[in-house]
Design goal:
70 residues, mainly alpha, Multidrug-efflux Transporter Regulator, Chain: A, Domain 2, two-stranded antiparallel sheet, 47% helix
Amino acid sequence: MTASLPPGDLRILGLLTASEAAAAIGRSVEVVRRLAAAGELERVPFGSQARFTPESVAAYKKRLTEQVTS
């Protein structure tokens, strides 16, 4: 059902593009793709594209912060 949404309407679902996820964590799109492949970020298939949950991005950022402070 969500595949019928125009790309600009993905905000309704709260999912992030690779570019948005990259900007949120301060890394490149390629790094985001590698993190998703490694299971560090939750990748949600959306047609031929992938989207990322804000929760997984936030959890990754939290893990980064904890690594820096420990």
